[in-house]
Design goal:
The protein has 168 residues and is mainly beta. The chain has a single domain, classed as AOC barrel-like. The chain is built from one helix and nine strands. An eight-stranded antiparallel barrel has the order 1-3-4-5-6-7-8-9. The relative contact order is 0.20.
């Protein structure tokens, strides 16, 4: 290794070490609010063994810490013979967090529900762009889904709580 390469590598190491305290000081902040999903069938429900698989296109809005101007994604529900439901999905959130400039953020989630419409979910948000670059979220949500509403095969409402981190 020549001396120029060694100096460059040492310079990068010093830069990385100076940034470490900044990342370490990013503290979780509380997050809470409401969400209002709209579900439209993405295809016909299909039986698989004793279960039924249902895939939805989702859209909706949110209020509170995460204020959306758009939410678009997909969800897959597995309805079990006993009436329990396991589900997972992902969506692209467009909006702001605690009044930040607008950006986008990818959310993935999983949860459980039942045929009475109650759901408990766990959300993870990451890969922010624009005003949401460096934002990470861990949220827990509860809600009810049920009757159709204009433009939705099934609609719902719920609340979320959790933590958000604004990493530089």
């Amino acid at each position: 290794m020549n001396s120029v390469t060694l100096v460059k590598k040492m310079g990068l190491l010093v830069l990385a070490c100076t940034l470490l305290p900044v990342v370490a000081t990013a503290r979780p902040e509380p997050a809470s609010g409401g969400f209002f999903p709209c579900f439209n069938l993405a295809g016909l429900p299909r039986p698989v063994g004793e279960n039924v698989i249902v895939t939805f296109n989702i859209s909706g809005s949110s209020t509170g810490t995460f204020t959306s101007t758009g939410i678009v994604g997909t969800e897959m529900d597995v309805i079990h013979r006993d009436g329990s439901i396991t589900l997972h999905g992902s969506f692209l959130f467009t909006g702001s967090v605690n009044g930040s400039p607008e950006g986008t953020m990818l959310f993935t989630y999983e949860g459980i529900g039942n045929v009475n419409g109650h759901e408990t979910l766990r959300f993870v948000g990451r890969q922010g762009t624009g005003g949401l670059a460096g934002v990470h979220a861990n949220l827990t949500a509860e809600g009810l889904v049920g009757a159709p509403s204009p433009g939705c095969d099934v609609s719902g409402a719920g609340t979320y709580t959790g933590q958000v981190v604004f990493a530089p």
